[in-house]
């Protein structure tokens, strides 16, 4: 989980750094001056941030405590847990069936007994 957290932190910092560098480059090479350049850059940054938050909303939800979690991971973990429960139920049912058979054999005389005669 730490690797995933570090990945998203790095992604966020990389995006922020890219936006900052883009802003500086835009100011350096802008054909317009002063307030017009600020207005253009501000508009582009707002659109970029809106687009980024929309994309992030596709992948993340915030729970009631304000914690972010991955929708895909949540859904996949639900599937895994449900599959594990189903498999555990099957194993328990098989184990119970085997135990009942063993108890029935023990009650009815033990079923097979070892003979000292190697031929039967």
From TrEMBL:
Pfam family, one: YtxH
Highest rank taxon of the organism: Bacteria
Residues forming coiled coils: 74-105
Stretches that traverse the bilayer: 12-30
Sorted UniProt keywords: Coiled coil, Membrane, Transmembrane, Transmembrane helix
Listed name of the protein: Gas vesicle protein
Organism per entry: Prosthecochloris marina
């Amino acid at each position: 989980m730490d690797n995933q957290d570090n990945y998203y932190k790095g992604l966020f910092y990389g995006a922020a750094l890219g936006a900052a560098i883009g802003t500086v480059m835009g100011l350096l090479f802008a054909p317009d001056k002063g307030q017009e350049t600020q207005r253009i850059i501000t508009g582009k940054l707002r659109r970029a941030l809106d687009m980024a938050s929309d994309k992030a909303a596709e992948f993340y939800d915030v729970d009631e405590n304000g914690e972010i979690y991955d929708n895909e991971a949540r859904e996949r973990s639900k599937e895994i847990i449900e599959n594990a429960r189903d498999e555990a139920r099957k194993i328990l049912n098989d184990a119970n069936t085997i135990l009942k058979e063993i108890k029935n054999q023990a009650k009815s005389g033990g079923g097979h007994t070892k003979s000292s005669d190697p031929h039967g």
